[in-house]
Every structure is written in structure tokens, then in C-alpha cells.
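Dear colleague,

As promised, here are the two records you asked about, laid out in our usual form so they can be pasted straight into your sheet.

NAME FIELD: protein one
SEQUENCE, THEN STRUCTURE:
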Amino acid sequence: MEHLLHLLSLSSSAGGVLNLSALVLGLAALAFSLRALLRALAGRSIAGSLAIGGGACGAALLLQMLELLRRSFAGDWGGLYDVGPATALVSGLLLVTVLALTTTAALLSGSKRP
């Protein structure tokens, strides 16, 4: 893992790729979690949407952690102080939102309707 992060710290574009990838995966996590909720409301299967939404959320959070580690390996302490709190806030909001959507979808899909 250290070797991978060392290689990432050598590339100036690695941070942009990690951040952009995390953003795309975060949006996908929200979209698939919302899709699961809409499918649950319609009485359709939600398993695929739940799996993709949860996986995308986890991958987005992992990429954000790798970006913070990349900055620390590069010695970009100013950058860490600048983006660290915002990263923690946005990551927490993503996790809470996806968890709320998927939990609601799972509860709705399991409930019996007349």
C-alpha cells in the first residue's frame, strides 16, 4: 500500500483523478440509492440498486481517503488543512444520505402492502 501511495504522490495529476473519480462514484451512489427507493415504492426488486449504490459509496469514500494519504505523502500540509474538514463533511453527508435512502428502500421493500 505504501508503494502505491508513493507512486501516487509522484504524479501531479493523481489528486485530480482521485477527486474526480470520487465525485462520480458519489453521484452514482446517490443515484442508485434513490433508484432503489423509487423501485421499492413501485414494488419492484431493489437488490441490484442497493448493491451498486452501496459499493459506489464505499469506493468514493476509499478514494477520498487515498487522496488525503497522497497529500500527506507529498507533504502538502497546507492542502490537508484546506480540504480535510470539507472532505470529512462531504464524506459524512454522502454516507448518511446513502444509508438513509437504502435503509428506507429496504424497509419499504420488506413491508407487506394490501
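NAME FIELD: protein two
SEQUENCE, THEN STRUCTURE:
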Amino acid sequence: MYTITACSAAQGRITFKIRNDETGDKLTLTVGKEFLPPFAGADSEGKELLEEEFSTLYEMSLVTEAASKALSVLSYGNVSRKGLIFKLTSKYKIEKEYAEAAADYAVRHRYIDEKSQAAHIADKCVKIKKQGKRKIAAYLISKGYEKEAVNEAINSVSDSDYEAAAVSALFKKTRTMPETREEKMKLAASLMRQGHTKAHIEKAFEALADENE
């Protein structure tokens, strides 16, 4: 049996001072209001806790800590839900179940908006890095973005922007038409590695041909 000897609320959290009635040991747990179990609150001073209730309150304090660390990670830049879980578990050694709960909290409160974030990344990759949709899709997937968010992101970029990116990528490599088929194939292969489609690569060579008329 445990007893809550004191509790106080501040900044959306409640701090509980708890005594183990059998051993006399004392500890302090802080739980975010969103994670509070129904049996605990700001008016719980003097309440006795069963072993399972104490365990639940303790676990919610760990979720609260994980959520706090998650917001700290997100303050440095956007990451996907999976990316956040990976950082919390690998870098900060937070157990997976608590990392997942923290990531769900971040999604629920829109600290993570995968569709918006992925669309922003796709636009940046096309206009700044001059990458094609295949490269962008592979990058987003590697960062843990869900398939739906990835598909919407690469489709949010206009075909004309993808074509312009392919043209810019080719012009950065050469401003003259390749003299041999082998040279052209090497250039085309390079553009394909940047994620450009066959159709956009053909448009890029057409633009290069026009440039050299």
C-alpha cells in the first residue's frame, strides 16, 4: 500500500509525494494532466494507493518525462513520428512503449504534422536540391514518414516544377549537347540517380538541345 502525502499543480503537471507504507520510503512523481489516471488528481492528498494504482501512476510519470523530452527534440526541427520514437529510444534510452506514447502525444497536439512536414521537405528538395520525385520519396521513407504522407508530398509538387528541376540538374552538369550516345547515357543515369523520371529527363535534354540551337 502507498499513500499520497502531498500534491501540487504547476504548468500543466501535478507532482505527487508518495510514501511506501510498508517500508517508509518516499518518492516524488510528476505527471502531466493529460496522462493522469482517473484515481489521481490535484486533490489526492491523503489518498491510499493500491500496488497496481501506484504502478500506473509511476508509468504515467515516465510517459510525462518522455513527452517532455519529445518536445525538446522537436524544438530543434521537424521529425516524423517514427523518427521521433527512434531518437527517444536510441539516443535517450527511453523504453519503446513510453516513446510511442510520447510520439502519439506529439501527433495529437500537432507538434508533428507528417503531411505538412513531408510536403515542405518535398518542395525544398525540388526547388533547392533539384531532386526528382523518386529520390524525394526514398528520402522521406528513410526518415520514417508514413506512406500516405509521402505520396501526398510528392504529388503536391507540380509536374512543371519536377521538369524544371531536371533541366536545372542537367544544365549544372553541362551546357552543351553530348557528342556521343555514351555521354548522353551517363548524363541520363546521373539524373536518374537524383530521382528524375525518364519523361522529365527527356524534357531536360530537349531544353538542352534548344539551348544549343
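A couple of things worth noting about protein two: The CA atoms of residues 5 and 202 lie 74 Å apart. The chain has a mean pLDDT of 96.

Best,
R.
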